[in-house]
Amino acid sequence: MKSKRLFLIFVSSVFLVSLVSANTMSGIGFAKTNTEAKKEALSDLCQMIKSEVSSSFESHSTDEGSSAISNIKISSNLPILGAEFTFIDKPLEVEAKVVLTSEKVNALYVQKLYNLNEEIESALNEIDKSKSSSLKLQLYEDIFSLIKEYERYESVAVILGAQILKNKAITKSQVKVELVKLDSKIDSVEFAATVLAKAFTKKNIYVYPPLMQNSTTATEFSSVFTKELKSKLHTTKSPKSAAYLLVGEYTLTKNAMILNYELLSTTTNEVVASKTLNISNNAYKDLATKPKNIDFDALLNAGIISSSDLKVSLNSNRGSQNLLFENDEEIELFVKLNKMGYLYIVGYTQTKDGKFSYLLELSEGNGNSKFVKFVNADDASRWISLGAFTVEPPFGVESIQVIASNKKIHILPNTKFDEESGYYIISKDIKKALSQTRGLKKKISKKVEMSEDVMSFTTMKK
Questions:
Q1: Which of 19, 123, 361, 397 has the greatest number of beta carbons closer than 10 A?
Q2: In the predicted model, is pLDDT for residue 299 greater than 50?
Q3: pLDDT digits over 394-444, tens only?
Q4: Residues 277, 280, 286, 288: what is their CA dihedral angle, to the nearest 10 degrees?
Q5: Could you tell me the CA-to-CA distances from 152 to 9, 124, 442 in Å, in that order?
Q6: 86-114, pLDDT tens digit by residue?
């Protein structure tokens, strides 16, 4: 495959399962060892849950009294409690299957939510007693972390049909209002990273860059802060070799930034530790903190095609979300379809030199056949490499959209080959190109299953 320019990845999975029948969910994974296969199966299960959470939020977001988790950016690192694993040894690999049954695990999620609620209420009681501004600041930061953790468990509990009897005593928005009233003493990126690192002393941590809330692309601040934080932790270079994932998100107020990081176990995605900081704007005043492509990002991750139980996923050797790449790095991309079918991929490039969309070549052939890949039954539920990509200028943001179908794909967006760039360009208007692929949604019939997945990735100069 040609070497192509690269950019930050968020995966928005796109298969739909009926909420009513979601009493049991399962995932499957293949690898050389039980431990690796278990992680792959867990990842597959989380993609299923993530898709279902996103679908339910989209369906019920206009309902009065809808859950507060409708405002969460759903990740594929959802916490799994009480899952049951089985393993099958094969000649060259291990097949792992994980099953999550709601009637068996709902009590675990309800109890976890109850415990977190108790911690939140206890912290609020301490705030009422305290006259110290510094102690109140610390307690509100702790509460923000607890709410973030609560929302992650709540999102899974809702999908499993658990009855959550008690709402949180305070919301993230209310906590942010209180944090705005309290002056932050953290006035540099280095100091913020030092304070944060003290909360995460485990080894073999893979650090993701912090993203702005409800965004899937990194910023200049994301890059600078990640480098500073990595220098103070026991890190690993790949999420596959990591024992823990450190995932960050920030939100901006008038004079400060609220930055939250959660340390997740790679075997269960449970929160091992979390920390929130209220950072003065003096720390990041010279750094860009807002993504430049936020409008298109929101459009790309809304209205995704979904049908039946066909599932397609995108990934990379660096993971599937919160990804930031630098020049000269080599990244390998992967795609997975859960059963036999066809797929094609559209890329959306946004750099300082311009914007355009293109079809990605996936195989040799003539006409449309070189853009369509067939996944046979033997390769179903396995990651298939799309090849190695190198990060080269101009830097910016690129998104990759995969469209899959259980029927042979005959209709593709029209393209024109550009000799200078080497791309089969669809349009210089990326929103127009997106409408062409989303238009396929109208053609779905009961006999045709289709699904979609999206990645966005950012590239920067070292």
A1: 397
A2: yes
A3: 788 888 888 888 888 888 888 888 888 788 888 887 777 676 665 544 344
A4: 50
A5: 20, 21, 33
A6: 999 999 899 999 999 998 999 999 999 99
357 forms bridges with which residues in the sheet?
348, 427
Question: What predicted TM-score, i.e. pTM, was given to this entire model?
Answer: 0.80
150 — pLDDT class (breaks 50, 70, 90): very high
Q: Which sign does the torsion angle of CA 152, 158, 163, 165 carry?
A: positive
Cβ neighbour number for residue 111 with a 10 Å cutoff: 12
Q: How far is CA 412 from CA 14, 254, 316, 367, 385, in A?
A: 19, 46, 25, 10, 22
- Residues 403, 448: Cα–Cα separation, whole Å: 13
Comparing 285 with 420, which gets the higher pLDDT?
Answer: 285
Query: Which residues neighbour 286 within 8 Å (Cβ) at sequence distance 6 or greater?
Result: none
Q: What is the pLDDT of residue 127?
A: 96
Query: In the predicted model, is pLDDT for residue 393 greater than 80?
Result: no
**What would the two tokens of residue 153 be?**
């468990």
On the question of a common fold for 1-16+306-462 and 184-287, the answer reads no
User: Which is more confidently placed, 308 or 85?
Assistant: 85
331 with 391: CB under 8 angstroms?
yes
CATH architecture of residue range(s) 184-287: 3-Layer(aba) Sandwich (3.40)
* Overall fold of domain 1-16+306-462: Immunoglobulin-like (2.60.40)
| Residues 6 or more apart whose Cβ sits within 8 Å of residue 458 | 7, 8, 217, 218, 219, 222, 323, 324, 325, 395, 396, 397
